[in-house]
Amino acid sequence: MARASTAPRGDAPAAGWPGVGAALAGRLAKLDIRSPRDLLLHLPLRYEDETRLTPIAAARAGFPAQVEGEVTSCEVTLRPRRQLVARIRDDSGTLVARWLHFYPSQQKLLAPGRRVRLFGEVRGGFFGDEMVHPRVHPVAEGEALPEALTPVYPTTAGLGQATLRRLIDQALKSEPLDDWLPEAVRRRLDLPGFADALRLLHHPPPEVPASVLEDRQHPAWRRIKFEELLAQQISLRRAYLARRAKTAPVLAGSGRLAQALLAGLPFALTGAQRRVVAEIGADLAQPHPMQRLLMGDVGSGKTIVAALAMLQAVDAGYQAALMAPTEILAEQHWQKLSAWLAPLGVEVAWLAGSRGKRAREAELARLASGEVPLAVGTHALIEDPVALPRLGLAVVDEQHRFGVRQRLALREKGAAGTLSPHLLMMSATPIPRTLAMSHYADLDVSVLDELPPGRTPVLTKLVSDARREEVVARVRDGCLAGRQAYWVCPLIEESEALQLQTAQDTYATLCEALPELRIGLVHGRLKPAEKSATMAAFAAGELHLLVATTVIEVGVDVPNASLMVIEHAERFGLAQLHQLRGRVGRGSAESVCILLYAQPLSQTGRARLKVIFENADGFAIAREDLRIRGPGEFVGARQSGLPLLRYADLEVDADLLEAARALGETLLRDEPQAAAALMARWLGGREGLLRA
Question: What single Pfam family name could you report for this chain, choosing any that match (predicted)?
Answer without folding.
Answer: RecG_wedge
